[in-house]
């Protein structure tokens, strides 16, 4: 079942998280405003990113905190929940009218011997900025989770 996303608003521009093991990391956070739904926000955001050509779910685009990152060079995109604001309620409705969850997108790319140190960082930054643009452009979009 599709969920209507009224808007996805970035909380900040993509930023450098530093190194994690041998991977450069870039990240950003977003606030979503969506109709009430029982669907997983990370799964729905992964669907938006997939449809925008950012990655393939399960290969280089992941939406679960338990996802195991492949050992390649990447870049790999991870979408996780980070809380959010309380729901918006309307008169005479037992369920919330809208939800306002937050999510974080983290992109990792390996700095391998064939690249300079900036190579992995540049790949992670580029992919993070592409994901940022894909999510920031969402207005009144019906999304079906992957």
Characterise the protein shown here.
- Strands 1, 2, 3, 4, 5, 6 and 7 form a seven-stranded mixed beta sheet that branches.
- The model has no long low-confidence stretch (mean pLDDT 90).
- 21% of the residues lie in helices and 41% in strands.
- With 146 residues, the chain is α+β, with helices and mostly antiparallel strands.
- The chain is elongated and about 55 Å long.
- The protein has one domain (3-139).
Strand and helix layout:
Elements: E1 3-10, E2 15-20, E3 23-35, H1 41-51, E4 61-62, E5 76-88, E6 98-110, H2 117-136, E7 139-143
Parallel strand pairs: 4-5
Antiparallel strand pairs: 1-3, 1-7, 2-3, 3-6, 5-6
Radius of gyration: 16 Å
In total, the number of strands is: 7
Uncertain segments are none
Give a short account of the largest sheet: 7 strands, mixed
Keywords, please?
146 residues, alpha+beta, 2 helices, 7 strands, 21% helix
């Amino acid at each position: 079942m599709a969920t209507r996303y009224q808007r996805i608003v970035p909380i900040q521009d993509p930023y450098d998280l530093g190194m994690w093991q041998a991977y450069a990391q870039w990240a950003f956070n977003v606030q979503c405003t969506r109709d009430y739904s029982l669907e997983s926000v990370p799964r729905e955001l992964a669907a938006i990113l997939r449809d925008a050509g950012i990655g393939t779910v399960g290969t280089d685009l992941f939406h679960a905190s338990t996802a195991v990152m492949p050992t390649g060079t990447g870049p790999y995109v991870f979408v996780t929940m980070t809380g959010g604001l309380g729901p918006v309620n309307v008169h005479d409705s037992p369920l919330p009218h809208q939800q306002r969850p937050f999510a974080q997108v983290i992109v990792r790319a390996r700095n391998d011997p064939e690249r300079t140190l900036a190579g992995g960082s540049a790949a992670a930054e580029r992919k993070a900025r592409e994901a940022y643009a894909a999510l920031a452009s969402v207005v009144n979009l019906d999304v079906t989770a992957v």
